[in-house]
Amino acid sequence: MEKSILLASFLPLLLFLLPDCVLGDDPYRFFTWNVTYGDIWPMGVKQQGILINGQFPGPQIEAVTNDNLIINVFNSLPEPFLLSWNGVQQRRNSWQDGVYGTNCPIPPGGNFTYVMQVKDQIGSYFYFPSLAFHKAAGGFGGIRVLSRPLIPVPFPPPAADYTLLIGDWYKANHTDLRYMLDSGKDLPFPDGILINGRGQYGNTFTVEQGKTYRFRVSNVGLATSLNVRIQGHAMLLVEVEGSHTLQNTYSSFDLHLGQSCSFLVTADQPPMDYYIVVSSRFTSTVLSTTAVLHYSNSGAQPVGPPPGGPTIQIDWSLNQARSIRWNLTASGPRPNPQGSYHYGLVNTTRTIRLANSAPVINGKQRYAVNSVSFIPADTPLKVADFYNIPGVFSLGSMSDNPTYGAGYLQTSVMAANFRDYVEIIFENSEDTLQSWHIDGYSFWVVGMDGGQWTPASREGYNLRDAVARCTVQVYPKSWSAIYMPLDNVGMWNIRSENWARQYLGQQFYLRVYSPANSWRDENPIPRNALLCGRASGRRTRPL
Ligand SMILES: *[C@@H]1O[C@H](CO)[C@@H](O)[C@H](O)[C@H]1NC(C)=O
Ligand SMILES: *[C@@H]1O[C@H](CO)[C@@H](O)[C@H](O)[C@H]1NC(C)=O
Ligand SMILES: *[C@@H]1O[C@H](CO)[C@@H](O)[C@H](O)[C@H]1NC(C)=O
Ligand SMILES: *[C@@H]1O[C@H](CO)[C@@H](O)[C@H](O)[C@H]1NC(C)=O
Ligand SMILES: *[C@@H]1O[C@H](CO)[C@@H](O)[C@H](O)[C@H]1NC(C)=O
């Protein structure tokens, strides 16, 4: 882990940065990150990648539930930059979310210190650069949040804990890809798949005969669902985005864009090397990349062809998704702890139906939600909201139901009340798979099925042991439904994890509002908040 330094030497910085209300007992972890361009060769050709402290992928964040993470990010790129934290809930603290709707970009040569807490969370997540299609150049890394020492985990400690950041990759750089999107074209088909920033045979994971290992896998790619499998070895699913699951065994597992999970693998086969395969799903040409599971006492290379996996089968994937259940008896921090065992018995207070579409607007390919294709404002929405700057966005610019009308451009923000309990149905009438992420929350995936959602679809909801997670897929011509308690005040990004769709407008913000206007409900603006756009020159707060 990067620079985890003694509290004392940072005390002055800390007193300056911390919200006044929390200076609790929870440990602090300090990171200093320098973001630069540098040469990488992930597919044998030299590319300009985004490095963090010289690394691609970036350093891994290892934390324990409730740790405070103080991450000072120096932007040494010649352009504005932001990092966001996929799955970190930022409780009461959308100020640290690192998307353009909440934070001013870190200017070239500038820095910003993120101050966040992994409150009541465990699990596997990742961070990524959120602006300007930077994600296509790297700048991402793994986040793991371990349980606190005395909290039982529903499986024995693994012999080692490996992270696999898997994702599709383009040889074209992010500026060229962005240019294609800006000029109204779609992205081409990806050139390959990377595991931890490397292509074919670029990774070896060493295991000892008889021992059990944890693999944390995140799909950090731009366009493609992926399947992962290990030759001759069963994969025991134990965690999905912070929920301990029923421990089902899989021979291969689908991970859609932005999703993370952990599985255990026992080295119980004859001592040799085995293939780890990651391949594209729902694509007519199947891309795949291979890594090696190496037994320390191995006497042989992997044998035979790498194991094949599912390719275009949708039902297979849907059935697998339905088999992912929450282990109700496993301990661990939970979203909304009071209500979590009974999430299915609480009446929802609002239903929101979100339909994705791909309209052409002003002659250019765009992507939309309920006909609105998001365009960024000149000032981050959270910042404009705080200073009451009018004209940046309007609440109600995003409807609760599909309109099926022509697409249009708008800075879309949906208003919602703190403590509402919402049902959200993602409706996909397109013939491609969608993946949706909600910042600031973990939600229960109560149902998914083919066809058009109707109120009668509720009869099939899993109201007992659905998994709580932060990213959900929606199969082609299908719907997925979630329940979400709005227990986190702030301005939260709801977005497609398909990065061309996100970039071209398939996202919006949910403004969860509490009239109490109390620091118990939401942290005050950070003293070090960067101010830009129409908020330039304002003051944050006095010391
Ligand atoms: C970041 O790295 C660049 C390139 O190595 C270096 O020139 C610069 O001084 C570094 N900045 C910080 C804040 O460490
Ligand atoms: C991307 O590649 C183009 C040439 O295709 C080049 O002009 C441009 O400078 C590159 N951008 C980056 C950030 O490497
Ligand atoms: C930038 O880094 C300096 C030095 O570490 C720190 O004092 C300052 O608070 C940081 N700036 C922001 C906006 O976080
Ligand atoms: C659920 O968690 C409990 C408690 O840790 C564990 O004993 C049990 O094996 C788990 N059940 C399943 C089906 O994974
Ligand atoms: C939910 O609504 C139903 C029907 O309106 C009502 O009978 C029930 O008591 C409500 N349940 C709770 C927990 O409020």
TrEMBL record:
Residues 1-24 form the signal peptide. InterPro entries: Cu-oxidase-like_N, Cu-oxidase_2nd, Cu-oxidase_C, Cu-oxidase_fam, Cupredoxin, CuRO_1_AAO-like. It comes from the Eukaryota. SUPFAM superfamilies: Cupredoxins. Pfam families: Cu-oxidase, Cu-oxidase_2, Cu-oxidase_3. One of its GO terms (molecular function) is copper ion binding. Residues 35-148, 161-298, 381-515 form the Plastocyanin-like domain. The keyword ATP-binding does not apply. Keywords: Signal. Belongs to the multicopper oxidase family. This is L-ascorbate oxidase. It comes from Musa balbisiana.
